[in-house]
Amino acid sequence: MTGYSGFIGTKLEKLLIRKGNEVVHINRILLKKEKESELTGLISGCDAVINLAGATINQRWTKANKKEIIDSRIETTRQLVNAIDKSTKRPRIFISASAVGIYPFDVVADESYPHHGHNFLSFVCSKWEEEAQKTNKGVRLAIVRFGVVLGREGGALPQMTPPFRYYLGARIGSGKQGFPWIHIADATNAIHYILQSPHISGIVNITAPEPTTNAQFTNTLAEVLRKPALFVIPRFVLKLLLGEREIMITRGQQVTPAKLTENGFLFRFPRLKDALQNLITGRP
User: For residues 187 and 191, what is the distance between their CA atoms, to the nearest angstrom?
Assistant: First the structure.
């Protein structure tokens, strides 16, 4: 597994170990070109390779940072694909991360939606997925497109709640933009489900089945926290604060997990209110 020290990776590793699996870490040094033979040897004989690596997108999108965001995903995926191809005993499955940011804004999309957006996030995801698609045809490939992953210790939620606690909760812009989300428990369970389901391959959306807008998310979070959400943050303010990265907050899409639901995956937290109550209050 790459990205094992990240928010999703740490939770996923604990789940996989509980399920009786051994998790082998692929660190950054092993992903260097000069370490290709060592990486190939490490992968040979593994049942699965899970790729969660990538520099954070939650940074100023300067020219240098954009290059880091792109290279950290494409180069890592390229090295893994090459190592898988050269392995003496290839893994059964390669799971490679992507994001729902690949879809155009203001659409309703499941995995069959054919078009990509025209922004930096879409470009990154498109190039990322192109590298994963080069995986040897004898290896099952699943490209998992994550929505906003909600958890107590990481992800977006800890950054969202403080303003509400100080009575400064606010929707973003019109609030009509889609907010595709997933509880961290469902995100990790979904990956484990894909590992155990030979019939699931290709693009898989890792999002909750309940369509949600920014306004709905804001109101539900305010309800769970028992705080008001009286304010509106205009888009131009976020443009001044975040620059180009404001599109992550002010624009969005509705993304549905058709492949997971059609293949029998049962969400533990299909409804936003239940997910937030669990994460904030500890209620099951």
Answer: 7
Angstrom distance (rounded) from CA 279 to CA 185:
10
Q: What are the tens digits of pLDDT across the range 91-129?
A: 999 999 999 999 999 999 999 999 999 999 999 999 999
Cα gap 191→197, rounded to integer Å: 10
| Residue pLDDT, tens place only, 12-38 | 999 999 999 999 999 999 999 999 999
Q: Is the pLDDT of residue 284 over 90?
A: no
Which residues have C-beta within 8 Å of that of residue 241, sequence separation ≥ 6?
none
Angle between helix axes 214-225 and 157-165 (nearest 10 degrees) is 60
Beta bridge partners of 142: 95, 202
Q: Which CATH superfamily is domain 7-281 in?
A: NAD(P)-binding Rossmann-like Domain (3.40.50.720)
Question: How far apart are the C-alpha atoms of 192 and 186, rounded to whole Å?
Answer: 10
3-state secondary structure the chain: CECCCCHHHHHHHHHHHHCCCCCCCCCCHHHCHHHHHHHHHHHCCCCEEEECCCCCCCCCCCHHHHHHHHHHHHHHHHHHHHHHHHCCCCCCEEEEEEEHHHCCCCCEECCCCCCCCCCHHHHHHHHHHHHHCCCCCCCEEEEEEECEEECCCCECHHHHHHHHHCCCCEEECCCCCECCEEEHHHHHHHHHHHHCCCCCCEEEEECCCCCCEHHHHHHHHHHHHCCCCCEEECHHHHHHHHHHHHHHHHCCCEECCHHHHHCCCCCCCCCHHHHHHHHHHCCC
